[in-house]
Amino acid sequence: MKLNKPKHSLFKNGIYALEGFVDITKNETSFKWQLLLLCVMGFVAWILPIGFGFSSILFISLFLPLLAEITNSSIERVVDLVTSDYHILAKQAKDVGATLVLMSLIVTALVWIFTLIVAFELI
């Protein structure tokens, strides 16, 4: 059995990544919301009167939900490819992907809370 594996190069891999980014941006509303969150809160992170290190932590943490959303979309697409019928395992796979997104948002919120507490010396 021959696998569907084309020969790769750094350039081709970059093109595939850009195609994936364009596709998920066009087709996934949740991903668009995560991009908006990154842009708005990223701007906030850099204009706050805190040090560069704190701003960097806040900014980098915003990529967690974005990465989780990409993973969740991948899981959903593979499940949809495998079956269009209802199956408990398909539901569970999609639910776990959604949990990943939720947990990433919670972790990001906690990073922001704790970082801002330390940055503003509120404790």
Number of helices: 5
Bin the strand percentage.
Answer: under 5%
Q: What's the rounded overall pLDDT mean?
A: 94
Structural class: mainly alpha
The ordered H/E elements are: HHHHH
Largest sheet geometry: none
Give the C-alpha Rg.
18 Å
Instruction: Provide the helix percentage.
Output: over 70%
What does the overall shape look like? Answer: globular
List low-pLDDT spans: none
The end-to-end span amounts to 62 Å
The overall strand count is 0
Structure, explained:
There is one protein chain. It contains 5 helices and no strands. The chain has 123 residues and is mainly α. Helix 2 packs antiparallel against helix 3 (52-61), helix 3 (52-61) packs antiparallel against helix 5 and helix 4 (63-82) packs antiparallel against helix 5. The longest helix is centred in the last third of the chain and has 32 residues, at 88-119. The protein is globular, with a radius of gyration of 18 Å. The protein starts with 9 loop residues before the first helix and ends with a helix. The mean pLDDT is 94.
What is the element layout, followed by pairings?
Blueprint: H1 10-27, H2 29-47, H3 52-61, H4 63-82, H5 88-119
Helix pairs in contact: 2-3, 2-4, 3-5, 4-5
Sum up the structure in keywords.
5 helices; mainly alpha; 123 residues; globular
Summarize the structure.
With 123 residues, this protein is mostly helical. It is 80% helix and 0% strand.
